[in-house]
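#lab-general

N.A. 3:47 PM
ok so I finally got the sequence cleaned up, no stray characters, all 299 residues accounted for. can someone with queue access submit it? mine expired

B.Y. 3:52 PM
send it over

N.A. 3:53 PM
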Amino acid sequence: MRVQVRVPATSANLGPGFDTLGLALSLHNEVVAEEAEGITVRIEGEGADWLVENGDNIVARGVRLAYEETGRAFKGCALTCVNRIPTARGLGSSAAAWVGGLVVGNALLGAPLSKDALLALAARAEGHPDNVAAAVLGGLTVSCAVPAGIAAVSLPVPRSLAWVVLIPAVTSSTAEGRALLPPSVPLEDAVFNVQRVALLLASLQAGRSDTLGAALDDRLHQPYRLKLFPWLPDVAAAARAAGALGCVLSGAGPALLAVVPGDGGAVARAMERALTKAGVEGSARAFDVDADGATSRIV
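B.Y. 4:20 PM
back already:
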């Protein structure tokens, strides 16, 4: 049997929702796979020049993890990975790889694992649930760890909004971004973020763009990560001046996510100009929200 799996890029946090919120975007990695003796991996597109093409590849590890979870012997697989999600940019490339491998393995096994089981496995492998929840479920996801695994809910997002992603030419690692975060924060900062997350979800549900801008503010992670991305305030200001409701780090960065009512073209161009002025190259484009999450089909 030969299967094809499609996994969306994801943007985590959305400003105040640190390690909680994730958004699936209409940019996808694809994996074509079939069972084989031994593991072969071929990579096209993003990361083709440096990602490993053997059993240590994350997609291959995800396939193996699905087999191990179901108690089935894993003899190998042949994988062709077409990567469109930029690596080390804050768009969930590692989450997409884990989810892609797990969904491939599940499909080859005849789909014995539920979405909840896949989500729990992916979150355990990735280390946190925000990106993997959006990659598995699609839409805007709210997720957290619970004793039984991961609790996650996917919410619809108003179609009137454009989500503009600025992808700088520089890279950054999640570990590097997390190393800058303090072990504790002032109570007033924690309350500030709880208020903004609640307002963000309420604004999206009610279609209230007038409150959405204030809801994107954050005090838990972005102020500390300015050391890595000192150009963030200027690019965010340019995005808002061009019509964005707000502009936040995508995950741990360096990509930025701007929320725009209507067409996002002017905001994308303004963000590119501001980034170039800061001495960093990059490109921006508007994406729709992927409402489906990871999908698989027999080919």
